[in-house]
Amino acid sequence: MALDTRERVRRAAVKLFADKGFHGTGIRDLATESQLSTASLYHYMGSKEDLLVDIMRRCLQTLLDTATAELADVEDPATRLRKLVKLHVRAHARMPRETRIVDHEIPVLSPAVRRSVIELRDSYERLWADAVADGVEAGVFTTAHPGVTRLALLEMCTGVARWYSPRGSLPLDELASHYADVALRAVGACSQSAAEGQSRGE
Fold it and tell me: Is the torsion defined by CA of 69, 74, 76, 79 positive or negative?
């Protein structure tokens, strides 16, 4: 029963932090959303920041673990970038609140915990940086500004969390594939490398 209640508190925090922001969410808001008294709430949580950090770490660790598994033994930079884009789009479509919290609330963290969250985020983004840099080095990507292009792609994919709806015109898998196509054009992927990735359904 206690575990169920803790999960209810966590889900309430995800909803409120995403909708109202960390500073805009009070303890009474969390208690009301969790259907608990304020006194009972403290039994199922540490501090409000503890809740925020847990949400962020879970989200980032899931992204990092999934991406690492997806890229295992994949050497082709275009295929790696396609996989990363599709994963990022799907994650932001399926977990819009969690990803929104990660994307917007890092500055509110205290220095003591901020570093660990940023390290997770940077480890994930390093997979993107390596894929783009390797593609440029191998001559399969032609972008003159790999760092800026990578940031632009991340922002493009992250934006899905703001507007995606399952009732939209494109199924999620098709949307993710379309974003991957756009990403490969943005890095100037040679047509052969891009076509090979599409033919393998990656």
Answer: negative
Length of the chain: 202
Q: pTM, whole model, 2 decimals?
A: 0.87
- Find the helix packing angle between 48-71 and 2-20, rounded to 10°: 90
Q: Which tokens in the block code for residue 108?
A: 């509110």
Q: Encode pLDDT of 146-198 as tens digits.
A: 999 999 999 999 999 999 998 988 899 999 999 999 999 999 997 544 445 45
Kindly report each contact of residues 165-172 with a partner whose C-beta sits within 8 Å and lies 24 or more positions away, as own/partner.
Answer: 172/89, 172/90, 172/93, 172/94
Q: Please state at what angle helix 27-34 crosses helix 48-71, rounded to 10 degrees.
A: 70
